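Worked example 3 (structure in, sequence out).
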């Protein structure tokens, strides 16, 4: 397995972990109140979700294209 594919797997796992953390944070009482009164989630939750999506997409791209020479 090439280094690009290994990095892709690691980035994909980190991305999924960040997405799960962001989803769990969005279900917390503080975020529910923030969404109810302000119409948006807290900044921390948004950054978890954005980072998770970016890392998962980057990991998938590395996993798909990382092994080609």
């Amino acid at each position: 397995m090439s280094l690009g594919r290994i990095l892709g797997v690691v980035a994909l796992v980190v991305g999924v972990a960040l997405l799960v953390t962001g989803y769990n944070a969005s279900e917390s009482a503080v975020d529910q109140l923030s969404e109810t009164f302000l119409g948006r989630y807290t900044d921390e939750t948004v950054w978890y979700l954005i980072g998770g999506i970016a890392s998962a997409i980057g990991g998938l791209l590395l996993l798909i294209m990382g092994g080609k020479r």
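Notes: The chain is about 85% helix and 0% strand. The helical segments are 3-26, 29-38, 43-65.
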